[in-house]
Amino acid sequence: MGAPTVRRRRLGAELRRLREAAGLKLDDVQERTAINTVKASRVETARTGVKAGDLDTLLDLYGVDDAAKRAVLHALARDGARRGWWQTYSDTISPAYADLISLEAQTKSVRTFQTTLIPGLLQTAAYARATIDAINMTSTPDRVHTLVEVRVARQSVLTRPDPPELRAIIHEVALRPQLGDPHVMREQLQKLLDVQDLPHVCVQVLPLTASPHPGMAGPFTILGFPETADLDIALVEHLTSALYVEDPAEVSVYGSAFERLRAAALPFGRTTDLIAQLKDTL
Q: Which pTM does this prediction carry?
């Protein structure tokens, strides 16, 4: 059996939190419902899914009356094992990357801070190819091509009927590399200008002159699910791995950091002017 998806882990963690908030132990669950301790434990640790009827029983027991929250948890249970179109690329992309694409397909908001790269959801194919080739140092041309396909396919979430709100803060450093061919960077900067016209996309630039800020610790992304903010997730990516931060208190720290970065970044108009100026110099 494959590793649990992020969705299933989120559901299990939330059910455990709700049980503990209700002052109940697993033995109490077994005494008051037809769900035994082994089954309840396996659901909480994401080793198995949960049927809709059992989920309703648990939510009733834990006193969860909020219809929106119940709907979100049912969606997590229903889609816990689903991987979608990206399953076609399972021999190329990592489980962590598959989880990211899965979450992007569900999220209502994406807040991302990037220090040296344009966010993946806003990359042109040429820019994606140049950066993927540089970062994946031992990848074959065929694998690079496949990863570019995946990255471009991810961007369909921004054009779906109910797209997530994307707020991207990009350090000015990321706007300056020329990646060998100036045309690649010029096309990429034009795309950043074009997406500013989308009502659900906002790009801000953190200037080189910005005072010390929490983003100095590195880039991160927060995936938001507004119906129940305590299920938001932060993602921190490294060269060979990715860390999903799921604890609500820790995710809140990333949220506060993003707000500080947003305040330090250039406002919308000045951001657009800077991107246009940099594009004209290429």
A: 0.79
